[in-house]
Amino acid sequence: MPVATDLSALTTKFHALSDETRLRIIDMLRGGERCVCDLTEALDAGQSRLSFHLKVLKDAKLVTDRREGRWAYYALAPDAFAQLEEFVGELPSTKLSVLASRCC
Amino acid sequence: MPVATDLSALTTKFHALSDETRLRIIDMLRGGERCVCDLTEALDAGQSRLSFHLKVLKDAKLVTDRREGRWAYYALAPDAFAQLEEFVGELPSTKLSVLASRCC
DNA sequence: CTAACGCATCAATATTTCTTGATCACCGGA
DNA sequence: TCCGGTGATCAAGAAATATTGATGCGTTAG
């Protein structure tokens, strides 16, 4: 089992990425840290909504947040995609032609 | 924009991977093609339930199915993870230290 | 000190997704 | 041809998620 490690942490991460708004957020953060107001404006999402999605990303450990004065800055977590790469990386191409030998 | 390609296809794939049962299915398919009854047994899931999850994976184009007699065989789609790798691969590590210059 | 701002959180509602049990269609063996 | 087995699909209910608007808390400017 390649990825028996922590299935539920993995599903949490994938779930966090299964939403367009959140994907956009991630994409914006690729350029570096952003404050919430920047994101709100760029994504034209209500403040409350954005805050919710940021929380989902944070809970999945994909982003980190930092408080500075009255602003909150979010950034990609350093090793955010490590676990995902591990899972996705196990390239299946090699064994693809293997057919199920025998059924039931 | 690195991944402007097709956000909704991407979210669909991520969503398909955001469930433990489906992750287990993927993992089993790494070893090659499997028939549904094998999967049902190995995952101890009801037939209907499994069929539902297989459909989710198939709709996300992560797996393909093949009919043979009265059995159905599922396998990882050849390029299943290509798009995911593209997204996940854009390693953020380099720009991580970039702080937001100015806010709102 | 007070008012405005940035943001998190909560409550209520809408929406989506999952599970279960039926049912149906198809195929192969007797 | 009839029957049992495999698996898809549907309908109904349960559960998880998302959206909205309201409220609250800390911070900064005046």
Describe this structure as you would to a colleague.
The structure is a homodimer of 104-residue chains. With 104 residues, chain A is α+β, with helices and mostly antiparallel strands. Helices cover 47% and strands 13% of the residues of chain A. In chain A, strands 1-3-2 form a 3-stranded antiparallel sheet. In chain A, strand 2 and strand 3 form a beta hairpin. Chain A starts with 6 loop residues before the first helix and ends in a 15-residue tail after the last helix. The mean pLDDT of chain A is 87. Chain A binds a DNA duplex (30 and 30 nucleotides) through helix 3 and helix 4.
Short description:
Chain A has 104 residues and is α+β, with helices and mostly antiparallel strands.
Q: How do the helices and strands line up, and which of them pair or pack?
A:
Two copies of one chain form a homodimer.
Chain A: H1 7-16, H2 20-29, E1 34-35, H3 36-43, H4 47-59, E2 63-68, E3 71-76, H5 82-89
The structure holds a DNA duplex (30 and 30 nucleotides).
Largest interface: A-B, 49 and 49 residues
Envelope shape of chain A: elongated
* Spatial arrangement of strands, main beta sheet of chain A: 1-3-2
Structural class of chain A: alpha+beta
Total count of strands of chain A: 3
Kindly state the percentage of residues in helix of chain A: 40-55%
**Cα-based radius of gyration of chain A, to the nearest Å:** 18 Å
Largest sheet of chain A, if any? 3 strands, antiparallel
Tally of DSSP helical segments of chain A: 5
Q: How are helices and strands ordered from N to C of chain A?
A: HHEHHEEH
